[in-house]
Amino acid sequence: MKTPLICLFISAAVAAVLPSLTDLSPAAATLTAHTVGAPPLFTGETIQLTEGVLHKLREASKGESLSNQFGFGNEQSRTNITRQCKILPGDPAWPSQSTWDLFDQLLGGRLLRPSLLASPCYAEWPEFNNATCYNLSMNWLNSSLHIGHPTSIMNPLYAGRSCMPFGFNYTNTCTEGGYPAYVVNASTAAQVQLAVNFARNSNLRLVVKNTGHDFNGKSSGKGALSIWTHWLKDKVFYPSFAADDGYVGPAMKLGSGVQAFEAYEYAKQHNVTVVGGEGVTVGLAGGYTLGGGHSPLSSLYGMAADQVLALQVVLADGRFITATSKQHADIYWMLCGGGGSTIGVVTSITIKTYPQIPTTTVTFNFTANDTPGPTAFWAGVESYLDNIERLVDAGTYAYYDLGASVAERGTTYPGDTDYYLRIQSLVAPNMTIAETRSLLQPWFDRLDRLGIRYTPQYYYANNFHDAWKFAFPQEYMGAATTKIASRLLPRQAYHDDAVRQRNFLAHKDAVANGFSIAGFHLTGKGRAVAPPTNNAVLPAWRETLTHAIVIGQWNSTADWKTVERTSSALTKWMQALRDLGSSGAYMSEADLLEPDLTDAFYGVNYPRLHALKQRYDPTGVFFALTAVGAEDWTVLVEDPLPESWNNNGRLCPRGVK
Ligand SMILES: Cc1cc2nc3c(=O)[nH]c(=O)nc-3n(C[C@H](O)[C@H](O)[C@H](O)COP(=O)(O)OP(=O)(O)OC[C@H]3O[C@@H](n4cnc5c(N)ncnc54)[C@H](O)[C@@H]3O)c2cc1C
Ligand SMILES: *[C@@H]1O[C@H](CO)[C@@H](O)[C@H](O)[C@H]1NC(C)=O
Ligand SMILES: *[C@@H]1O[C@H](CO)[C@@H](O)[C@H](O)[C@H]1NC(C)=O
Ligand SMILES: *[C@@H]1O[C@H](CO)[C@@H](O)[C@H](O)[C@H]1NC(C)=O
Ligand SMILES: *[C@@H]1O[C@H](CO)[C@@H](O)[C@H](O)[C@H]1NC(C)=O
Ligand SMILES: *[C@@H]1O[C@H](CO)[C@@H](O)[C@H](O)[C@H]1NC(C)=O
Ligand SMILES: *[C@@H]1O[C@H](CO)[C@@H](O)[C@H](O)[C@H]1NC(C)=O
Ligand SMILES: *[C@@H]1O[C@H](CO)[C@@H](O)[C@H](O)[C@H]1NC(C)=O
Ligand SMILES: *[C@@H]1O[C@H](CO)[C@@H](O)[C@H](O)[C@H]1NC(C)=O
Ligand SMILES: *[C@@H]1O[C@H](CO)[C@@H](O)[C@H](O)[C@H]1NC(C)=O
Ligand SMILES: *[C@@H]1O[C@H](CO)[C@@H](O)[C@H](O)[C@H]1NC(C)=O
Fold it and tell me: In terms of Cα–Cα distance, which of 348, 284, 345, 336 is closest to 538?
């Protein structure tokens, strides 16, 4: 493949630690790049794997075979494609311990072989420790626990529900499940390049884990080599940045490990605002933005992927590139909205920033007990749907929860009438409390006429960060007791009276069927900006007025049959929302059983996305459930579940076993 790398100059030699292969730990050279349209490289990005370094490795190891394991992909590996099942620990082809040791040395000691997070709860593991286990069990739903661990993910359903702590375990076993075997704790481009090359050349399954938030387990994989991007935390603010697409203005460059709360805080320090999600700990510069990224600011400024001016990426062949609207423009197009884990590992993104913006938030809820009865409750819900078009067009956003039961998630039994609607929270950017109040008045008048009691709590800050921080506390994640499905509800589902009525009845029916709804009223076409046309954001987002996540639930001890039955019922039930108009589903918060998945997640972009996947990752170095090209592979799941239902099994080309 031709890699017109930005002009590079070797400006420093390599460090020396390794006794046998001196000069090669870490295996990297320092390169400084000069390019227009993209900001300077972070220090970690200047440390790269080069042909020169590989040449030295070849000389030092006096053997082609060893050094070949770390070499770049070439034209031949593109044209002579033979896809095989990925290897697992214990296979004859699994790299020897000495190869892993060499790999660690080349990485400068950044290779981890992590124990399972909950292994302290299980006597057969050396980590067994009752006190630590107790601690883990108490904190298991704290996302920070899973983010800070090299392999743990927040929806362990996809890792086979193996090795769960007490209170969350459905069996009493702790096996490796769908978790990676080795992890590169990445801090430089060179480490990422070495890992990508090693995985490609040795036919290892490769995983990229950033925070592990993904709802479909896209950041796990049985027996894989994982690249952990969490510690790529660099941040730089540019008061004026000239991008390749003609944008001239303030911008921020973020290492791909930067999370929402960190980006928001940094933006506040520089008196600007960035587009990020409501979720406090989500990987803003990772899977979130790559997959599109919806935000409390989307109704104003569009999707997170729309903000991207440049990305720095290690591609599947191991080369490090900069992608902008002009340089590697096809890669730029794909990575801005086409999802994580497709053709490369992003090491940083550069995004637009906006001026500081005053923001009001409103939080309130009512349950059936706060109303004269169920009929009034549902009329109150309906009145919300009746106002959504107006609220979105005014530039607002809300995160709402609808369901039954005191637990306020799911129902205790079908037919349960302990209903709740929780507006947690509504965000009115660029509005005062008085303006927000008057915007909401027609809806609140209706609630008042229905005799519904509710107490809206208003909060105003002169900047987005403070309002967001007040309105969105860290959410609980980590159990394996839910399955979600998504539908982007188009304008028609609110504008047209008959369709809106069906939309309302569907909301009601979801709860009657034992599901709950976590919905967002927002649109992906910001009213203060022109939507970009050169990225892969699902076009349905531009017509969306609500992203509805419908949730099916079971308990920790439910067997796989129950899990499967509830999941299938949810997938099937979603037809009620699919029937509200042609649209799609949000890939980052959706159902991997979605029928016609590629169309729902990627829309008209899919043929081009798939062609680019073939072009830049012909052998399938990258794989994640539901990611572009995932349908060409299958996970031979070890749990009593259909293929590709989770990550607990060998990864094979579809049709090969
Ligand atoms: C509590 C919670 C709140 C959420 N809030 C929002 C929200 O407000 N708005 C919204 O749009 N979404 C939200 N999400 C969904 C979120 O966008 C997805 O979970 C997303 O996948 C998270 O990306 P991550 O990098 O943090 O997670 P990970 O699970 O680590 O990664 C997700 C995917 O991206 C890939 N990936 C990550 N980093 C890279 C990289 N540098 N290069 C290549 N591939 C990479 C991974 O391999 C994986 O396939 C939320 C999720 C949760 C659990
Ligand atoms: C292509 O792959 C096949 C099967 O692995 C191999 O036998 C053949 O030599 C390869 N051809 C080239 C040109 O590398
Ligand atoms: C383990 O810890 C729990 C909680 O502290 C305690 O109740 C239990 O007795 C402990 N078990 C053992 C075997 O120490
Ligand atoms: C329990 O967790 C807390 C906070 O994470 C930590 O400070 C403490 O050391 C832990 N205790 C044990 C026994 O692991
Ligand atoms: C979650 O864990 C983090 C880090 O240990 C801690 O700062 C935070 O307070 C915890 N949150 C909750 C709700 O316990
Ligand atoms: C989890 O494991 C413990 C320890 O063996 C066992 O007592 C319990 O039944 C299992 N299930 C749950 C839900 O705790
Ligand atoms: C990973 O690397 C970071 C620094 O980049 C370091 O702080 C952290 O402790 C490392 N984690 C592990 C588990 O080694
Ligand atoms: C911060 O930004 C706002 C809005 O752009 C501007 O009015 C204000 O003067 C700025 N404050 C500082 C300290 O730069
Ligand atoms: C915010 O409101 C002010 C005053 O009404 C207006 O001039 C400005 O354009 C608004 N900004 C955005 C991003 O909508
Ligand atoms: C619901 O609103 C009431 C005030 O009306 C508040 O006291 C309560 O904490 C809220 N409940 C939730 C779950 O937000
Ligand atoms: C958990 O769910 C299973 C299957 O639905 C059911 O048999 C069991 O009684 C439930 N356990 C609890 C504690 O609710």
Answer: 336
